[in-house]
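subagent[fold] <- orchestrator: predict structure for attached chain, return tokens only, no commentary.
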Amino acid sequence: MDDQILVDLLSQGDDKAFRWLIDTYKNKVAATCYGYTGDRDAALDLAQDVFLEVYRSVANFRSEAKLSTWIYRISVNKSLNWVRDNKKHKQNRSIQRFYKDEKNPEIEIESQERNSGLISLMRQDDDKIIQEALNQLPENQKTAFILNKIDDMSYQKVAEIMEISISSVESLIFRARKNLQNKLGDYYKAQRS
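subagent[fold] -> orchestrator:
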């Protein structure tokens, strides 16, 4: 559906358009939130908050960006607020992804073993260490890394969501990867000793 048509329908309170929006974006929004929270229930609650915010604010949507970019930006902002509000909240989770199971329309969690790179090399027992390392990254590095490596978004899409250049995204992801390698390298050296 064309963004402008969808925005017009949503602005008019069209329930079918809102249902279509939710059906189209719910898994991606929940996965983005989960990348920050590490908590399935919190991610689902945040996803609901995102769609409520979209519903309330759609009249203010500027067509300068794609609707999907705006939705992801809201998702990232709500997730970052949740992280700030729950800094003391211990996170013990696997680096996993949400997906839609055709047999079960609920959002489910899928292991990310099929993904390449740093995350797929880690065993499940190490997930807490990985999450702690992710949480220690500067906010922009964490955002770029999660959107690109966990949510599988292109550099272009990450740049649109973060409202920065593609080269800035590349730099943030490079620095995030280096920081994670340093943090996790020390951990794994200690484990081998």
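orchestrator: received. Logging for downstream: Residues 166-192 form the longest helix (27 residues). The domain at 3-192 is CATH 1.10.1740.10 (Rna Polymerase Sigma Factor; Chain: A).
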